[in-house]
Give the backbone structure.
Amino acid sequence: MPLIGAHVDQDDPLAHARARGAEVAQFFLGDPQGWKGPVIGDRTREIKDSGVEVYVHAPYVINVATSNNRIRIPSRKLLSAHLAAAAELGAKGLIVHGGHVGAGDDPQKGFDNWRKVFERLEEHEVPVLIENTAGGGNAMARRLESIARLWDALDGFDVGFCLDTCHAHAGGVDLADAVERITAVTGRIDLIHCNDSRDAAGSGADRHANLGAGQIDTELILEVCRRANAPIVVETPGDGQADDIALLRKSL
């Protein structure tokens, strides 16, 4: 049975995790839409000693793939700062979106920029887990062929993968064989973001729903979780997270 948990508010992640019956807590360390550095507060020892497995989600604004220096350079710095903060908390991974390049840019530039991140990163204790994204024509990690090109660019580095079921569905990836096709490229799946989708397959819309309340067949989501054999985090609307976790435990 994989460990199962939820994305929770950062004000008191342990309390929120326990209220949901979660064994895993994922949270931000600041404003997910802002450029300020991470804040870990005064609960570091409590979190490390809690027995709850912790994952940190990097801010959404990070885009290390872009050719825009005013975004790429601050993105690298913010990613590095979050890796250091995640290590202080004893986190199992730092999740970061794959990012994108501009409409007129060669996608290869984005893949090359990702490689430069790892070439320049100082030694870090916490693995970077790149998450697949739902939309964007020039996204680095939306479609399977792009993920394959990204992993080719990162050959030789220890990079993890986070599979989001809503993002895959919305991004046009068939969940029926997604685990097998992704692991053939990445070698492993480190974390599952287990989310239903409010929108149709291929829509490109990143709008999560509680399990059974969206447009993905629940059994298909469960089968992804079984095949991936990785820790699971629900990023669904908070009022239904306890029920989502209970459903996963009962079904898996």
Notes: The mean pLDDT is 97.
